[in-house]
From TrEMBL:
Protein name as it appears in the record: Uncharacterized protein
UniProt GO molecular function: methyltransferase activity
Chain ranges of the Histone-lysine N-methyltransferase NSD-like PHD zinc finger domain: 3-42
One Pfam family cited in the UniProt record for this chain: PHDvar_NSD
Organism whose genome encodes this protein: Lymnaea stagnalis
């Protein structure tokens, strides 16, 4: 997070998010358009697709990341809060002593 630099609004008409112009280049899935930019909350961070019929995007509540609401795109370790919001795996905090939070090694994915 920064406190300096120009702040711009996402060009998607339904979006109310604002970003520092200097931060946008670091955000995966930012799309540049004539009107400015479309923020990463409008494209899946796994497959980079915007619109997939019948599959909505779930947004992380802690960072500007979104994933299709499917087993193929949501990253392991993410915690779904409801049908629209999640906490992505980048914010997962393992609880010591919780067997569900221990690592599992698999030969295949």
């Amino acid at each position: 997070k920064q406190s300096d630099g120009e702040i711009k609004k996402c060009a998607d008409k339904s979006c109310r998010k604002f970003y520092h112009e200097s931060c946008l280049s670091d955000l995966k899935c930012t799309r540049w358009v004539k009107a400015g930019f479309i923020c990463p909350l409008h494209a899946c961070a796994t497959c980079s697709m915007q619109d997939v019929e019948g599959c909505k995007l779930m947004q992380c509540v802690r960072c500007p990341v979104a994933y299709h609401a499917s087993d193929w795109c949501i990253v392991a370790g993410s915690q779904e809060l409801n049908g629209q919001l999640l906490v992505c795996s980048g914010h997962f905090k393992a609880v010591k002593g919780n067997s569900l939070h221990s690592r599992v090694n698999l030969k295949r994915c």
